[in-house]
Amino acid sequence: MIVIRTLVIGKLNKRLSFYKLADIQDSLGQTTKELQLIKTVWGTLQPLRGAEYYEVQKVQSKVTHKCYIRYTEGIDTNCFLKYKDRTFSIESVIDVDFERKLLEIRCVDYVNKEVMDIG
């Protein structure tokens, strides 16, 4: 069975920002790692539910949300996604149907940001 996913522009109603860790040099010449903005786009962001969450847990133990955006170069598992005051670590990025039109991103929501490993 072939599932055809189409991009419904009206559902891309959340402003999502993508960040990567970058080495930043301070005034003393020391380098530190900070999140640097890559791109801000419109997309969807929804928690996984019921059976879908159970199926994902068989493969990945921490995935909690699914996101769709238009195809964008440079978005990968080394990125972080921010929506409002929440930060998500990206677990997988899938080019839907290999058409370079839509990305499906599965990510983890960290409620306690001190637990998030960004190093």
Write up this protein.
Helix content is 8%, strand content 49%. The protein is mainly beta and 119 residues long. It has one domain (9-109): Beta Barrel (Thrombin, subunit H), CATH 2.40.10.270. The longest helix is centred in the middle third of the chain and has 10 residues, at 50-59. This is Phage head closure protein. InterPro entries: Phage_SPP1_head-tail_adaptor, SSP1_head-tail_sf.
Which descriptors apply to this entry?
mainly beta, about 120 residues, six-stranded antiparallel beta barrel, single chain, 6 strands, about 10% helix, Thrombin, subunit H, 1 helix
Order of helices and strands: EEHEEEE
- Please name the CATH architecture: Beta Barrel
Find the CATH superfamily: Bacteriophage SPP1 head-tail adaptor protein
For the largest beta sheet, what order do the strands appear in spatially? Answer: 1-2-3-6-5-4
The percent range for strand residues is over 45%
Domain tally: 1
Brief write-up:
The chain is mainly β and 119 residues long. Helix content is 8%, strand content 49%. It has a single domain (9-109), classed as Bacteriophage SPP1 head-tail adaptor protein (Thrombin, subunit H).
Give the helix/strand layout:
Blueprint: E1 14-25, E2 31-47, H1 50-59, E3 65-70, E4 79-83, E5 86-95, E6 102-109
Antiparallel strand pairs: 1-2, 1-4, 2-3, 3-6, 4-5, 5-6
